[in-house]
Design a protein that fits this description.
- Strands 1, 2, 3, 4, 5, 6, 7, 8, 9, 10 and 11 form an eleven-stranded mixed beta sheet that branches.
- The longest helix is centred in the last third of the chain and has 26 residues.
- The chain has three domains: about 70 residues, no CATH class; about 220 residues, 3-hydroxy-3-methylglutaryl-coenzyme A Reductase, Chain A, domain 2 (Alpha-Beta Complex); about 90 residues, 2-Layer Sandwich (Alpha-Beta Plaits), CATH 3.30.70.
- Strand 1 and strand 2 form a beta hairpin.
- It starts with a helix and ends with a helix.
- By secondary structure, it is of the alpha+beta class.
- About 45% of the residues lie in helices and about 20% in strands.
C-alpha cells in the first residue's frame, strides 16, 4: 500500500470513528471528502456501527452528485428493485399513438406476466383508447383571518383580483399556468386550492413555489396569517374524496372492447363472468369497505411503473383511487374501462433524470420536455392508463376463471 493510500485509509477511519462517537454527522462528510468518496465513507461507517456488510447497496452506476443535489440526503448506495417489461401495448390517444413497452419495477412475482397478458388481450382487440379529461396540479394553503367576516372579505378580494394573483404565480416559472382558485371557509380559516398546469413536470414543486408567492402577497395585502403552505386540501399523498372527484395531476380514461374470442382464448373466461365479477368485487365490495378505489389493482401497476420511471412513489396513494367498469355490448363483447382521477406523473424533474429511470422513460419515448411543452407527460399518462387497464383486465380475468392461485403456484411464488 502506497503512502497516499495509507493516508486516505487513516482519514477514513478517523471520520468513521467521529461518526460512531456522534461527533460528526453523516451529512457533514462532504466538508472533508469529495461527494463520491463521502458515499463510501458514510456506508463504511454504517457497516462499522452495525457490524454488517453492504455489498449490494454499494454497487451502483448512479450519478452521485446529481442524486445528492436533487433526490437524496445521506446517500450510501442504492436499493435495487428488479425491473421487467410488459407489452408492447397498443395505445390510441391524443398524444400516444402506437405500441409501447411498459417498464415495471417490482418484487411481486407474476405482476409483469399478468400485465403482459392484459396487453395481449388489448392488442388482439384493436388497442386501448386513452385520453386525459383534466390536467392540474394543486397546492392549497390555509390562511387565518381575524374572523369569518374578514375571511369572506378576503375571498371576495381574491375573486376580484384573480388576474393579479395569476400574474404573481406565473412569474415564478415560464412553464406554469394558473388554471383556477378554489376556496372554502371554515370559521376564520380560509382554504385556497390553487390548480396549475405545469408542462412536462409533475409540478408539485412548481405549484408550491408559485402558491407561496401568492400567499405572501395575500398575507401582506389583506392582513391574513399564512398558517401553512399546505392545509391538506391539496390533497397530497393522502386518500380523499376531493381528489377522487376533482382530480389532482392528470385525470385519465383508458378503454377497450374485448371480443368474446379474445376473452375466451387469452383470459380463459367469458365476458359475462368478468362483468359480474367487476360488479360484485370492484363495486359492491369496494362500497362495503367504503373504499375510494373501485378497482381490482390500480396500485400494483402504478407503483411498479412509478418506481421504474422515477416518479414520486408516495403518489401511488392518489393514483390507486379510481374506477374500473366492465359492460356487455349488444354483440356480447366486453367494454372495459379504467378512470384514474389523480395520476401525478412527469417526464422532467424529480427522479426522472437518474440513470435507470431516464432509460425507462426513454423506452416509452417520453423522457424530457415535449414539443409542445406538456406533451411528453400527457403521452406518458395515456400509456400509464393503458398499462393499468391491462393489469385490471388480466386480474379480473384470472379471478373470474379461478386461475389466480394456480398462476402463483405455477410461477413458483
Amino acid at each position: 500500500m502506497g503512502e497516499e493510500e495509507e493516508q486516505e485509509e487513516e482519514q477514513e477511519q478517523e471520520l468513521i470513528d467521529r461518526i460512531a462517537s456522534g461527533e460528526l454527522k453523516l451529512h457533514e462528510l462532504v466538508r472533508y471528502v469529495e461527494p463520491v468518496r463521502a458515499v463510501e465513507v458514510r456506508r463504511h461507517a454504517i457497516e462499522h456501527i452495525t457490524g454488517k456488510r453492504f455489498y449490494h447497496i454499494g454497487n451502483f452506476s448512479l450519478d452521485v452528485e446529481r442524486a445528492e443535489k436533487a433526490n437524496i440526503e445521506n446517500l450510501i448506495g442504492v436499493a435495487q428493485v428488479p425491473m421487467g417489461v410488459a407489452g408492447p401495448v397498443q395505445v390510441k390517444g391524443d398524444f400516444a399513438d402506437g405500441y409501447y413497452y411498459i417498464p415495471l419495477a417490482t418484487t411481486e412475482g407474476a405482476l409483469v406476466a399478468s400485465v403482459n397478458r392484459g396487453c395481449t388481450a388489448i392488442n388482439r382487440s384493436g388497442g386501448a383508447v386513452s385520453f386525459i379529461i383534466h390536467d392540474g396540479m394543486a397546492r392549497a394553503p390555509v390562511l387565518k383571518a381575524r374572523n369569518s367576516t374578514h375571511a369572506r372579505e378576503a375571498m371576495e378580494f381574491i375573486e376580484r383580483n384573480r388576474a393579479k394573483l395569476q400574474e404573481i404565480a406565473e412569474s415564478t416559472s415560464r412553464y406554469l399556468t394558473l388554471e383556477s382558485i378554489q376556496s372554502w371557509l371554515i370559521g376564520c380559516n380560509l382554504f385556497l386550492r390553487f390548480v396549475y398546469k405545469t408542462g412536462d413536470a409533475m409540478g408539485m414543486n412548481m405549484a408550491t413555489i408559485a402558491t407561496d408567492e401568492v400567499a405572501r402577497f395575500l398575507e401582506t395585502e389583506l392582513g391574513l396569517e399564512h398558517v401553512a403552505l399546505s392545509g391538506n386540501v391539496c390533497v397530497d399523498k393522502k386518500p380523499s374524496a376531493l381528489n377522487l372527484l376533482m382530480g389532482r395531476g392528470k385525470t385519465v380514461v383508458s378503454e377497450v372492447v374485448l371480443t368474446q374470442e379474445v376473452v375466451k382464448e387469452v383470459l380463459k373466461t367469458t365476458p359475462e363472468r368478468m362483468a359480474e365479477l367487476v360488479y360484485r368485487k370492484c363495486w359492491l365490495g369496494s362500497a362495503l369497505a367504503a373504499s375510494y378505489g373501485f378497482n381490482a389493482q390500480f396500485a400494483n401497476v402504478i407503483a411498479a411503473l412509478f418506481i421504474a420511471t422515477g416518479q414520486d412513489a408516495a403518489h401511488v396513494v392518489e393514483g390507486s383511487q379510481g374506477f374500473t367498469t366492465a359492460e356487455l355490448t349488444g354483440e356480447g363483447d366486453l367494454l372495459c374501462s379504467v378512470t384514474l382521477p389523480s395520476l401525478q406523473v412527469g417526464t422532467v424533474g424529480g427522479g426522472t433524470a437518474l440513470g435507470t429511470q431516464r432509460e425507462a422513460l426513454e423506452m416509452m419515448g417520453v423522457h424530457g420536455s415535449g414539443t409542445p411543452p406538456g406533451s411528453n407527460a400527457a403521452k406518458f399518462a395515456e400509456i400509464a392508463g393503458a398499462a393499468v387497464l391491462a393489469g385490471e383486465i388480466s386480474l379480473i380475468g384470472a379471478l373470474s376463471a379461478r386461475h389466480l392461485a394456480e398462476a402463483h403456484r405455477r410461477l413458483n411464488r
